[in-house]
Amino acid sequence: MTEQILPPLKPILMKERVSVLFIEKGNLDVLDGAFVVVDKTGVRTHIPVGGVACLMLEPGTRVSHAAVTLASRVGCLLVWVGDGGVRLYASGQPGGARADRLLYQAKLALDDDARLKVVRKMFAMRFKEEPPERRSVAQLRGIEGVRVRRMYELLARQYKVEWKSRNYDHTEWGSGDVPNRCLSSATACLYGICEAAILAAGYAPAVGFMHTGKPQSFVYDIADIFKFDTVVPVAFRIAARNPGNPEREVRLACRDAFRQSKVLQRIIPMIDQVLAAGGLTIPKPPDESVAPAIPNKEGIGDAGHRG
Known about the structure:
By secondary structure, this protein is of the alpha/beta class. It contains nine helices and eight strands.
């Protein structure tokens, strides 16, 4: 009788995963080896956590230690969000960032010339044209803000949506108008998968270039490059219909948009391309670097994924 040996774990590439799933009012746990959500009646729903980039946990969700451990091992990001998925409170860190890439990212952010080159590259990729010459990061940020407000106005006109401004009070969510609620729900979806990709590639969400001083500054930097090609048109299209539950409609539509635009295939190469514009080389990992959590001779997930 020969002993059956199970094949080693091999995380699924970020670009091959389902982008995002939302969970509310249930307990996440690992039962009989499966990642499940259990509702109040005891019914289990299996979630293929290894094939999901990001799980958004809404109010009413509880998570066991075993569930968090398994999600981390397979590289699925857990994000705790507000009702309707419109506020991001906290997130896990699936496997952690890599020291060599953290040092590379920090060096770019601390070097004024390199940072400006990265910001200029972000601007060019977002607006499909080169930014004005001899402008500082602050000046480019101001130019970007004007263009973004104009793009909101144009999309509102295109979809025949009454638009005042990008403004809402997160403490009184129901008081916001439908377009702003749709936009907040849509951008939260995009922020979740961008943070999952940033962590999978070994970088830090907090070390930004255009945005600074916030826990998700780099998430906002990367998400802004994709925002108007993916989630913003979706938000205005849903707002024009004025459905009874706009947040849910937006989440479902964003998931479809992510799949159709193949955004998960593009985020990590985009990150590498943006940072390469700074002109610095990635430092080699030191000899004492911690080995990957799941050894794999062929490499783990995307570049930098958990080790």
